[in-house]
Design a protein that fits this description.
alpha+beta; 5 strands; disordered C terminus; Arc Repressor Mutant, subunit A; binds zinc ion; about 160 residues; three-stranded mixed beta sheet; Dna Ligase, domain 1; 2 domains; flat
Length: about 160
């Protein structure tokens, strides 16, 4: 069940449309999908439940849900846009090897904006923070290349290569 939180910004007329069945399913799948799925990944999940859905419909509804402050776009440099079922401010860590995005379980750091205030002429409205790293799976793969190579070599040996 999704609770629609009151949003400080007035939603645009387009965004105040009622929650359609498609939008409901998109939202449910966004909550269910591991990590922060792309629209394409969500589309694949939604289509299994609502076959006539188009990718365009998924995009459009994600934009509307984002305007309503129910979901959040995850902006990542150079990567395909991902979507977040958590609308409140939080930080991310992105795997530089496979692109996986995880939430970081720390409270937003108020000191970040305080430190910036003296050195910018802009009024600060918020900030996004993305950490870079390597996920457990990629780290594991990087740490154990020997196992694979050995397996391959053993096979080659039996073939007398
Ligand atoms: Zn990874
Ligand atoms: Zn997130």
């Amino acid at each position: 069940m999704v609770t629609i939180m009151s949003n400080a910004q007035a939603p645009s007329p387009r965004a105040s449309l009622r929650m359609t069945r498609q939008r409901q399913v998109i939202l449910e799948e966004l909550h269910r999908a591991p990590g922060h799925p792309t629209a394409d990944e969500l589309y694949a999940r939604v289509r299994r439940r609502l076959p006539p859905t188009s990718l365009g419909t998924v995009y459009r509804n994600l934009e509307i849900l984002s305007e309503l402050g129910i979901v959040r776009k995850v902006e990542l440099g150079g990567a395909q846009r991902r979507w977040d079922s958590r609308a409140e401010q939080h930080y991310h860590v992105r795997c530089v090897s496979c692109g996986r995005v995880d939430d970081v379980q720390v409270k937003p750091l108020p000191g970040v904006q305080g430190a910036l205030r003296p050195v910018t002429e802009c009024e600060l409205l918020g900030h996004r923070l993305e950490f870079l790293g390597r996920c457990p799976r990629c780290r594991h793969e990087a740490a154990t290349p020997q196992r694979r190579v050995r397996g391959t070599r053993a096979k080659e040996d039996t073939h007398g290569a």
